[in-house]
Structures are given as structure tokens and as C-alpha cells.
């Protein structure tokens, strides 16, 4: 459940006979109730009933609390903070608050003119993320890019910006019109109303993209005007999976021996 979730989690591993675990239980419940509205989840696992799971996460004593940030889940880190409700809540909000907000954000894939109209067409600015083709990044790599984009979107959530994404070659008119030039991943900031755009001239990183967005909003970044915003074509949405690699066909199956 935790590993399949995009929400941030704090998970306590406990043993029924553990005195410290019994003392933590009411504080854990209070913290869980308070953090629910923040999109941060708390869970508990009886390590005596789920020994393999406890071993998997390196649990050697009780209670042990593991921290899983929002987005794609990896091996959790160990929580070493306060054991009372107020301290747990403060830690969770300061450490996981951004990932909780990011997890609640849904990024729209540009799959049709209608999607473009309902997102970019109604916003002052549109942040278009151009990702590598799924054959180049794989699902894991793509999700990592999208998680970073979500974190950025969460930080700029109060700004009039729509956040959308597409993959290489899916929207060729956009790539050409916004001078993407095969640089994936990259971002284009677009104003549909002003028929203008800007692309970053720095490498992909969360820090660089944050600075780029700030530069666009403050008017520091140079923009380019275009006669019209390129058209979006209808494509099939990504299914969340790795691409199926086409099977290689031997030349002998295509040509006769004489032709070879």
C-alpha cells in the first residue's frame, strides 16, 4: 500500500510487548489525525507478524519509524525525531510538506487540443515539459522527471501557471515552434495570449528550472514572439508502463539468400 502510493508516509514498526511502542501509540494516532489534512499518511506495522518486511527495511529495534517521501517510493530513511505528537507533526510538515503538495498535483499530458485549451489556454503562463521518449528513459526515469516537475509545480502553485508535459516526437509542431531542437528533457514557458515563449539555456535540474521560472515571472528571461501558437495533435496517453521494445527481425527473414 505504501510503496504503491504517491503520498508521503511515516511508518512505525512496533512489537506488541514493547513498552516504548505502547507509549508512542496515542501520540502516533494524534499525529496521524492532524496530518491527514496535509496529505501526509502515518501507518504502523507489527514487526512480529511481518518479520520479512521489517528485515527488508533494516528494522533492528522497536519502535523504528521509516520515512517515505511523496512520489515514486524508494527505500525509506529512518526517523530520529521527537516521539510526541507535536514533534512528529512539525517534522512531517517541515520535511514532507513539499512532497505532500507535489503528490496532490496532477500533471496533464498534452494528448489533444482540448487538453491544451483547458490548461494552457486558460492560464497566464504554461510550463510545458518535453520528456525523452519512453524508449529512452523507461518508466522509472520518466516518473523521476515527473516527480521533479510536480515538486516545482507545488512551489509555484499560487502562480497563474499551468503545468503540462509531452514526450519527444509526440507533438512535433510544439517542438519546432518552441525551438526544442531535440533537447530532452527541457521546458518551455509559453504565453498563449501574448504568443511568446522562453526556453532555459541551462541543464536539467530542479534548481535550474526553479531559477528559470522565477526569471520568466520577473521578466528577466528573454522571450521570443511567434506568429501563432503551434497546434496540438491528438495522441494516445502514456499508460504508465515501460515501452515494448520492437522485436528484431533477422535480414534472412526479409530477403532471399540471393538478395543477401
Automatic annotation (TrEMBL):
One of its GO terms (cellular component) is endoplasmic reticulum lumen. It comes from the Eukaryota. The keyword Endoplasmic reticulum applies. GO terms for molecular function: protein disulfide isomerase activity; protein-disulfide reductase activity. InterPro entries: PDI_thioredoxin-like_dom, Thioredoxin-like_sf, Thioredoxin_CS, Thioredoxin_domain. The keyword Signal applies. Pfam families: Thioredoxin. Residues 1-97 form the Thioredoxin domain. One of its GO terms (biological process) is response to endoplasmic reticulum stress. Keywords: Endoplasmic reticulum, Repeat, Signal. Belongs to the protein disulfide isomerase family. This is Thioredoxin domain-containing protein. It comes from Spumella elongata.
Amino acid at each position: 500500500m505504501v510503496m504503491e502510493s504517491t503520498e508521503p508516509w511515516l511508518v512505525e514498526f512496533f512489537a506488541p510487548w514493547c513498552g516504548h511502542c505502547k507509549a508512542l501509540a496515542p501520540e502516533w494516532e494524534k499525529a496521524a489525525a492532524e496530518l491527514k489534512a496535509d496529505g501526509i499518511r502515518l501507518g504502523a506495522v507489527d514487526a512480529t507478524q511481518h518479520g520479512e518486511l521489517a528485515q527488508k527495511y533494516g528494522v533492528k529495534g522497536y519502535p523504528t519509524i521509516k520515512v517515505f517521501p511523496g512520489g515514486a517510493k524508494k527505500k525509506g530513511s529512518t526517523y530520529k525525531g521527537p516521539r510526541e505528537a507535536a514533534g512528529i507533526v512539525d517534522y512531517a510538515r517541515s520535511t514532507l510538506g513539499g512532497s505532500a503538495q507535489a503528490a496532490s498535483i496532477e500533471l496533464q499530458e498534452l494528448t489533444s487540443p482540448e487538453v491544451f485549451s483547458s490548461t494552457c489556454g486558460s492560464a497566464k503562463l504554461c510550463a510545458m515539459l518535453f520528456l525523452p521518449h519512453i524508449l529512452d528513459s523507461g518508466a522509472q526515469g520518466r516518473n523521476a522527471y515527473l516527480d521533479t516537475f510536480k515538486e516545482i509545480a507545488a512551489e509555484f502553485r499560487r502562480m497563474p501557471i499551468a503545468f503540462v508535459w509531452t514526450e519527444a516526437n509526440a507533438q512535433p509542431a510544439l517542438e519546432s515552434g518552441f525551438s526544442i531542437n531535440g533537447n530532452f528533457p527541457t521546458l518551455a514557458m509559453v504565453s498563449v495570449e501574448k504568443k511568446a515563449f522562453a526556453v532555459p539555456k541551462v541543464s536539467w535540474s530542479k534548481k535550474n528550472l526553479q531559477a528559470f521560472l522565477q526569471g520568466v515571472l520577473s521578466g528577466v528571461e528573454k522571450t521570443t514572439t511567434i506568429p501563432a501558437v503551434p497546434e496540438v495533435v491528438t495522441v494516445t496517453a502514456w499508460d504508465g508502463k515501460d515501452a515494448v521494445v520492437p522485436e528484431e527481425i533477422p535480414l534472412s527473414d526479409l530477403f532471399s539468400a540471393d538478395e543477401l
